[in-house]
Design goal:
Layout lengths: L1 E6 L4 E8 L4 E9 L4 H16 L8 E7 L3 H18 L2 E6 H8 L7 E8 L2 E7 L10 E4 H8 L5 E3 L20 H10 L28
Parallel strand pairs: 1-4, 4-5, 6-9
Antiparallel strand pairs: 1-2, 2-3, 6-7, 7-8
Length: 216
């Protein structure tokens, strides 16, 4: 199965072509842009296809990161994935960023907590077994709750929130997600309907109240 993987959930705008049968990356394109995914994504996909020597018509599945991550970036990626899947007549798969982080961690034979600094004293996290099977759903917890959880067993902690265990005031780096692993997980996943954003926190921007204009 040839998978087109897309990631716009963080600071990167990434796309890759992954061969699920051979279990190898065929080509990728990644640019760290911070914002502006909507303007960059289609060119990034074209660059990944060119690097893979692959035509868009050869794609058999679309995999896209669904969060947690950038509210706007996730919407851009999911919309693009669903649109491409519809036009190509193929299935689309959502891939959470937390399993991606877990698979990026060194393989050391102990269970993993993938944890992202969500700011405001909150953490996005998910627990995984030593073989990287999920041990629960993705969730948002307080920093104190995260520190208690991480100290409750022989966990390997990966992701931007890891430094907060030793220094709650640490300045953390932005999480970045391996587009190759997005492709791998997308190839291995079972189809489960159209991908939807995984938001563990509501958007910062909210509509104003008390200023509604009456309509005729």
């Amino acid at each position: 199965m040839i998978v087109l993987a897309i990631d716009t959930a963080g600071v990167d705008c990434s796309a890759a072509v992954y061969d699920g049968k051979a279990k190898r990356l065929l080509g990728e394109s990644t640019e760290m842009i911070g914002r502006g995914h909507a303007e960059k994504l289609m060119a990034t996909i074209d660059a990944a296809l060119e690097a893979a020597g692959c035509q868009l018509s050869a794609i058999e599945r679309i995999a896209v990161t669904i969060g947690p991550g950038s509210f706007t970036g996730i919407r851009v990626g999911v919309a693009a994935a669903r649109g491409l899947a519809l036009s190509l007549g193929v299935e689309s798969i959502g891939v959470s960023t937390l399993p991606v982080l877990a698979h990026m961690a060194p393989k050391e034979g102990s269970p993993v907590i993938a944890a992202m600094d969500a700011k405001r004293g909150e953490i996005y996290l998910q627990r995984f077994s030593a073989t990287l099977e999920p041990l629960g759903e993705a969730e948002m917890v307080s920093l104190d709750g995260f520190r208690v959880l991480a100290s409750s067993g022989e966990w390997r902690v990966t992701g931007s929130a890891a430094p907060l265990l030793s220094d709650p005031a640490a300045v953390t780096e932005t999480d970045r997600f391996s587009i190759s692993i997005v492709g791998q997980l997308g190839a291995e996943a079972k189809a489960a309907g159209k991908p939807k954003p995984l938001y563990l926190r509501g958007p910062d921007a909210k509509p104003q109240t008390g200023f509604a204009v009456s309509r005729a």
